[in-house]
Specification:
heterodimer; A: mainly alpha; MetI-like fold; two-stranded antiparallel ribbon; 73% helix; B: mainly alpha; 2 domains; 14 helices
Chain lengths: 294, 283
Amino acid sequence: MNRNLAWTAWALLAPALILVLGVAVYPVVRTLVLSFFTQNLSTNLEPVFSGLYNYQRLLADGHFWETVIRTLIFTGFAVGSELVLGLAAALAVHHSPFGRGLARTAALVPWVLPTAALGLGWIWIFNDQFGVVNDLLIHAGMLSKPIAWLGRPDTAFTALVLADVWKTTPFITLLLLAGLQTIPVQLYEAASIDGASRWQRFVQITLPMLQPTIFVAVLFRALQSFGIFDLVYVMTGGGPGGATETVAIYTYRNFMRYLDFGYGAALLVAGAGVLSVLTGGIWLVLGRSNGGDR
Amino acid sequence: MKTYLPGFSWKRRGVGAIVLGVLLLWCLGPLWWQFVTSVKTNAEITGLPVTYWPRQWTIEHYVELFARRPFARFLWNSFFISACATALCLAVSAPAAYAFARLKPRGGPVVVALLVGVAFFPTIAFFFPLYEVVRSVGLTNHPLSLIIPYAAFNLPIGILFLAAFFRTIPREIDEAGVIDGLSHVGILWRLILPLSGPGLATTGILVFIASWNEFLLALTFLPRMEAQTVTVAIASLSGGSLFELPWGLIGAAIIISVAPLLVLVAFLQRRIVDGLTAGTTAN
C-alpha cells in the first residue's frame, strides 16, 4: 500500500521532473561539458577537446574580470538602494491611514511591465535634447546644461541603476509590506510600555521580524541583478565603449556574435561560481536568523 | 492575530497623502511619459520646450503601429505563446503540487531544492544548450521553442504556489473521495481542482506575465520577424541607432504592449500581490 503511494506520488511528479531535467538540468550539464571543448570559428564550429584551455584563457581575460567587478558593483548599488528605498516605502505605506490598496496596485505596475520594452522608454527619458530627466533637472536648477546620459560611461551606468531600481523597488516594497503585516502589534505595545523609543522598536522588533523576508528578497534580487541582460541589452547595449557591459551581455556576445561556444560555456561556469560566492556572502550577512525558527 | 492599525489624525493623513503621491509618481511617471509622447505629434516630440501635456493630440503613432507595421501579429504571438506556456505549466504543476501537498514522497525536499535553484538562476545560465536543441530539432521560429522553456522556468512558481493552495483545502474532502472509491488522480481532478479556481488563477497570472515579458530566449530563438514577440519587436524598433528614433511610435508600442498587463493588474491586483508575497512570507 505504502509502496503504491510512493509510485503514485512519483508518477504525478514525473511530467514536472522531465521538464525540469530537460530544460534546466540538461543545459547546466551540457554547458559544463562544453566548457572543456574549443568550439569556435577556428575549429570550423566543430567541438575539439581542449581540457582546461578555456579556463586558462578566462583567468587571463582582463575584460571578463572587469565585467564581473562592474556587475557586482551594479548589483550592490541596485539591490542596496532597492532595499533602503523599499523598506522606507513599505514603512510609510504601512503607517499611512489610507491608500494601501492604491499603493499596492501602483507598486505592481513597474514590476509587471516588460523590462525590454521599458528599456527603450528609458532611452527616451534620458535623451540629451528632449529627455524629461534633463528638463526636470534643469528646471530644478540642479543642472546647468543638458547631459547625454547614455553617452558617458558614469552617467550611463547611473541611468541603468536608476532604471533597475525603478522597476524592482516596488517589488521589494510589496514583499516587506506583507512581512510588516505579520508582525503582532502586541510586540510594539509591550515595547512601548517598557519605554522603548520609536527607533529602538524599529531596530529591535521590526528589523529582526522582517529579517527572513529581507533575506529572501535580497538573495533573489541579487541573483537576478547579477544576471541582468534585457535592460542593458536594450538601453545601452553594453556601451558606451563597453562601459556598461555586464557578465550576461559579455557572455551572450561570446556565444552569439563571436560564435565562441566553448569559451562562452566557460564564462557561464565562472559566472555561476561568482554567483555562488555572492549567495554565500548574502547568507552569511543576512541569512542567519536571530532567534527565529528558521 | 492583531496586527498594526494606524490611527487617524490630520498629521497622519497629510503624511499619508504625500507618501501616496510620491509613490504614484514614481511608479507611474515613466509610463505616463511614454503615453504623453505617444499622443504627441512628431513636431512636438522633438520641439523645445519639452511639453508635459500634449498641445495637440494625435493617434497617428497608433495607426502606424497597426496599419504599417505588423503589431497585431506581434501581440498575437506574445499572447499565444504566453497562454500556451501558462496552460502547459499549470497542467504539469497541478499533479506535482498535489503529490507534494498530499502524498509527501520521500525525496520530495530534493525536488523542491532543485526547483528553487531553477527559480533563482538567470535565464542566460540555460540558454545556449537550449538554443542548440532548438536548432537541431528545427524548432527555430516555432512557438514551441519558447512555450516549453517558459513552462519549465515557471514550474517553481507553479508547483510551490499550487501546493500551498492545495494545503488550505481540508483533508476531509480527500477522505470523502477515498470513500467514494476515487483514485488520487480522480481526487485531484474531480475534487481538488474544482475548488482551486483562485489558486490556479493567481499562479496562472504570474506565469503569463513572466512569459509575456521574457526577452533573452525570445530574442534568440525567433529571429524571423513574423514570429517575434512584442517585447523583441519593440526592442528592434530602435534599429540599433541611438539617434533619430521614432519616439512617438516607440511610446505607442510600449503602451500597447503593456496594456494587457495593466488590465490584469487593475482587475486582479489583490490576487497577484497575495501570490507574490505568499512565496516569501509563508515559509
